[in-house]
Each structure stands twice: as structure tokens, then as C-alpha cells.
Input
Amino acid sequence: MPCEFTARRRVEFSETDMAGIVHYSNFFRYMETVEHGFYRSLGFSVAHDRHDPPVGFPRVHASCDYSRPLRFEDEFEMHLRVIEKKVKSLTHQIIFSKITPAGAVEVARGKLIVVCVTTKSDGSMGAVPIPADIASRIEVTTPLPSPA
Output
């Protein structure tokens, strides 16, 4: 069962600020990119409409700590690790690493907590257990410690 997923991409010009550094808000988009890739690697989508009733995984927490900049045309990896699985929620750790000739260098570290929900008859969302066919495909691993 997978507990990790890695995606690689290059910084686009439109993602940078006037200093040529990736704007901090883009890291949240990158976290969503790697999360969706993780779900696709398990054979399903972030839009879990094949369940009755359909379920979704909105974020209840998102954070990111930055240690080094990424710049236009830098190549980087986003490495997602499932570090906690509860009955109704998942916690993901995302490590961002710049790819350099000398190897990967960590530049940021993110965390997402998502909760499995469905829409109730009154239109509100309510937390529900993660469907068994999804939960059975997701394993938990230990978080990577912060670099020294």
C-alpha cells in the first residue's frame, strides 16, 4: 500500500515575484498538485463521485515553512508522505527539494490535514469515515525529521 508519492516540475515565470523568487502562495498550489497525483497513483481522483453519497477531502489545516528560495526555471520535487490516518482524516507531510547537480536540497516543508466529508440533505458538509476502498489503499509512514 502506498504511503508516499513524488512529483517533479520546473518553476514557471508566472509563479515568481518581482525578486524572481517563487511567491509563497504557490507552495499551497504545489501541495495540491502532489496530493492529487498521489490520489491518481492509487487509482482514484480527488473528486470521489463514485461513492454514494459522493465524498470529498477539504483541507482543515494547511501550513508551509520555507528555508531556501526557489527561482524561475529551478527544477524541484514535491514529496508527499502520509504521516497520519484516522477514521475521518489524513495528514500529509510535503517536502519540497530543489534539484541541483550536487543533489536535492530541501527548500520548504508543508503540512496538509484533510477530512473526508459528504454533503448532507440540508446542503451542509459533514465528516464521514473514509470509504474502505480508499482507506485500504493508504498506508502511514513516519514523518521526516527537520534538517539539522
